[in-house]
Amino acid sequence: MILLATILVSFMIGYVLQKTRFKYLSEAGGAMILGMLVGGIIRYTISQGKLQNVMIFDQSTFFLILLPPIIFESGYNMRRSSFFYNMGSILLFAFVGTIISMLVSGVLIYFVSGILKWTSREFSILDSMIFGAVISATDPVTVLSIFQTLKVDKDLYANVFGESVLNDAVAIVLYRTLIGFIDTPFSSSNIWFAVLDFMRIFFGSFSIGLVVALLCSLLLKFTALFEHPNLEMVIIILYAFSSYLLSEGLRLSGIVSILFCGITMAHYTYPSLSKESQFTTKRMFKVLSSLTELAVFTYLGLAIFSFESKEEYSAGLILFSIPIIFISRAANIFPLSFIQNLCRPPAHKISLEQQIIMWFAGLRGAMAFALSLNIPSIAQRSILTTTLILGLFTVLVLGGATIPLLEFLDIPMGEEHLQPERENDEREFINSNWFMALDRLYIKPFFTRKYESISQNDDDPTPDDDATDLNLNKETNNSIQEPELIENEETSDKDTKTNGQGPGHQKSKEWKLDESSIDFDDMVT
Length: 525
Description:
The protein is an all-alpha fold. The chain folds into two domains: about 1-410, Na+/H+ antiporter like fold (Up-down Bundle); about 455-525, no CATH class. About 75% of the residues lie in helices and about 0% in strands. Helix 6 (about 85-115) packs across helix 9 (about 155-180), helix 11 runs antiparallel to helix 12 (about 255-270) and helix 11 (about 230-250) crosses helix 13.
């Protein structure tokens, strides 16, 4: 009851922060501060037995209840055009970048704790690498929510979003791989086995998410569930959650599985849903994600007072871990951005200002804290408390400074970043990609109940996610003006036809007015 009341107040705080446009405190930061206040009150007014039940951050609850809705929603509601256009940089940052962050963090932690003796307990090299893997798991929920509100550059958003989601999965796999070395000595054969195991976990999880989503698509295609919207939504939820549980049961990565399950469902399952379910699933998963995110950050705030002794906090480790996460993040972002820019067209190069934002956006949060809960090492308590403090620092301080930094670096926001050449690059990529063409002609029609390709319009063979999103937001938010807008479009088309400017404009009118051709993609930003 205390937790539910705290989450409710957190929502109200978030509402007030949005209405007042207070840019120095995010919703996640507000939930954390409220959690700390409630935790402090509980700490000194309630007995220890009840204290443990209310304030302990439960790892099983996090991984089985709170995390799946967040990850699935991020895949289901993502802007796929920008995501797949930036897939190369996302994979580079998520895989190579996370490994770089882990190695740099691990080496520096080992140097600080072992050689300089500035921490209360000396870490082994394995302890240091495990800690490096833990704090390499970024959790930029705060930054992404700010990006969505301010409508920052699409490439910047896609890179931060894609890296953060896949980064969590990579960090978990690295963490599990390193944990396996606690009882097994390092050797060249074991290292190669760890690499193969890493690939097995990732691609196995990806395959499970893909197959489960495609099975769901076929079920909806060959049944009349579109006549029962409630059943459609139940099927979506059960299939999504089953992909997560199946991967975890097979000791794979549920995060990778449910992420790609969400992406695949958005592409193949979503068009087979009834219009009511299309709208409702987008909103429902967004609400569930927001609820669980606030619950997670409230839990983190409560957890600060859940430790019985101040001696469990290692002041030296905390002090030097803060600059270490900045150094490891810089070793990841700036060199890899340089490599990426060698292969990107001028309009899509990652600018220095964007690189600074990406470096700054590497917040630590619930994922890192959850991984540190059950490390089988004598250094576990020091790692746990340090990770918690790092999470509080990055969310409250770095998250609160994100908007001022965006303004200082003059990052384009609103509609400023919608440059025609960048839109054309994405469209050309989608139209020229062999898999996109194969998918449009054969794969999507096979898995979709009623597939109507917009390729009938030669000028626009592939629907643009963000343009569709913009049109739908206009229809949803300005429904009173909609008849007038449509009338103006029809009048404009008649005038155009009268002036002899060709039939292409008439096709554009049909695309806008034909509701069956709208993909409804990314309706929720």
